[in-house]
Amino acid sequence: MENCIFCKIANGEIPTNTIYEDENFRVILDNGPATKGHALVLPKSHYADLFEIPEDVAAGAVKVAKKVAGTMKEKLSCDGLNLVQNNGEAAGQTVMHFHLHIIPRYKDDGQHILWKPTSLSAEVLEEIRKTIAGE
Ligand code: AMP
Ligand code: ZN
Question: Measured on CA atoms in the order 6, 8, 14, 20, is the torsion positive or negative?
Fold first, then answer.
């Protein structure tokens, strides 16, 4: 993709803070980090989001995230870690090249990545379940 910044970063056309690289992925430090060590797993090929990315590439991204997460736990001594992956504007995606956020968490780091729970009746939950399960 010609004008995709993450294509350029992933393929080394724009220099950035790389913490891991292999044939198919580059992991960079987010330049607006939620916490110390916040990183992004970028596939070197362009896929806009989870709907477009092939299953094996998505699986590969999670494998890379697991490897980097282990390193972060060891080197940054984080207390926890969120994997976050946004798809579409409605979900907060701002760069339309698939990426997986690795966000190390620290006790009292002041970040709020969790959602506000709502409550639904058992009937409504069952309706939703049937819709998604195709029953
Ligand atoms: P999302 O909202 O899931 O699309 O996340 C996009 C992320 O990319 C944000 O956390 C940005 O801070 C980060 N970001 C955008 N441009 C760059 C860049 N040039 N280098 C590093 N991170 C970036
Ligand atoms: Zn791209």
Answer: positive
